[in-house]
Amino acid sequence: GVHDLVLYPRQTVSHLRVPPSVRRLVTTWAALEEITAPGLQSLRIAGDSQTETTTCKLQLDTPQLDELEVIRPMGKIIFARGAPPLLHTLIVQDPFSPEGVSSLIEQCQRSLETITVCSKRELFERLVIEECPALLQRLQCDGPVKFRSGRCPFLDHLGLTAPTVYEPASQPPLPPQPRPPLDNTA
Known about the structure:
The protein is mainly beta. The chain is about 10% helix and about 30% strand.
């Protein structure tokens, strides 16, 4: 069967059913309200540049999902049968609201290892996540993220204060420069 699939669903399609053999799916929001994909490991949903319609609630039935990337999500994304236990990577670009982002992270609390949020600074001023995912190892974002409670190894170096604010480093430190050799001939 086909393992990788790129689909541009028409505005009349609300439920997308994908065969179990498909491992990676790239699609647009269009008018989708539901995606059922039993074997899917990677899902990327992008804004539809022609119509720019984005759904307000999308239900995913994707028990095997490992990586989810959503571009310009407008409303909430919910998992039909609870969060996929293997969902390790979440990428959110240009979300319309902070609530959609925090809801997604909170649903995948137990499995997320890498979270990337690309957005305008204003979104982060209102982004609050109830609890830091327990297995989180990498958090990449364009602004501060506030965790209301809980601890995790990733945030331990920030101390114990709640709420914890994770502020991304603006510039990685430069490696030390080697000293120029002394010129003894002068």
